[in-house]
Design goal:
Elements lengths: L4 E2 L11 E3 L5 E5 L12 E6 L5 E5 L4 E2 L3 E3 L4 H5 L7 H14 L3 H8 L3 H8 L139
Parallel strand pairs: 2-7
Antiparallel strand pairs: 1-6, 2-3, 3-4, 4-5, 6-7
Helix pairs in contact: 2-3
């Protein structure tokens, strides 16, 4: 463990180390940054404990502690620093921010700008001295980014059940009927037209008690039930256009204030 003391540029604590403000408040932890655009010998990236945003804090006047680093800036100033959204402009935005929240000597030390340039920037128009430098800053804001994800919302189950109903079917039935055909018998009838002898004429006389019985048949409906395939059912899932859903959240933006000292 590195002993507490002045901070050297080669002994910046690793990411995850504790960052303490000048008033003794723990503001967050050291974060990883893109060293291509941010000079880690002049700035330390801090992940704020309250908001989770990454900001820059100056290393000027910082010292090493047993658990990390202590910067020479108050906690409220570190927490109000602009978030690091674009590494290319983060240093310029942080430099201008800390200039507005520190004295002329501290601004020159933390930003690397000579005292003369700071003084020139602070001169009012009309005091006989022209401005020799322009101050620029980057104003950032939070955008509300909304996406969608698939989540289960309803469970469906496909099952069959038997439904009883009455059904009427018309069927045609047939029956037998007796048809009596009567025809005269003549003497020329080849089958029975021969004249009977007189001796047998009495036998040929009709008798009133001759009865011929016949059984007639009729069709009756016969009811039977059998299971047959009626239709094929297939269930599948499709994606349909849903209803618009309004999402509301709170976002923050930076405002630029000019303070005269």
């Amino acid at each position: 463990m590195t002993a507490p003391g002045p901070l050297a540029s080669s002994s910046v604590p690793p990411p995850g180390s504790t960052v303490v403000a000048s008033d003794g408040t723990v503001v967050g932890r050291v974060a990883s940054v893109d060293t291509q655009f941010i000079d880690t010998s002049s700035w330390v990236a801090v992940t704020l404990a309250e908001s989770g945003l990454a900001v820059l804090a100056p290393l000027s006047g910082a010292r090493r502690t047993s658990t990390g680093i202590a910067v020479a800036v108050e906690a409220s100033i570190v927490r109000g620093a602009p978030p690091v959204t674009d590494p290319e402009t983060a240093t310029a935005g942080a430099r201008n921010y800390y200039r507005r929240h520190a004295g002329a000597d501290q601004r020159a030390a933390s930003s690397g700008v000579p005292d003369a340039d700071v003084a020139d920037r602070d001169r009012e128009p009309g005091d006989g001295t022209a401005f020799t430098s322009d101050a620029t800053t980057t104003r950032s804001r939070e955008d509300l980014v909304v996406g969608t994800e698939w989540v289960p919302y309803r469970r469906m189950r496909l099952r069959k059940r038997v439904v009883t109903e009455e059904r009427t079917v018309t069927v045609t039935v047939r029956r037998e009927e007796l048809v009596v055909e009567v025809s005269d018998i003549t003497a020329e009838d080849p089958v029975s037209g021969a004249r009977l002898p007189r001796s047998r004429s009495d036998e040929a006389r009709p008798r009133h008690d001759d009865v011929i019985e016949m059984t007639l048949h009729a069709e009756e409906p016969v009811v039977g039930i059998e299971v047959v395939a009626a239709e094929r059912v297939r269930a599948r899932v499709i994606v349909v256009d849903g209803r618009p859903v309004a999402v509301t959240d709170t976002v923050r933006r930076e405002e630029i204030d000019i303070e005269r000292q």
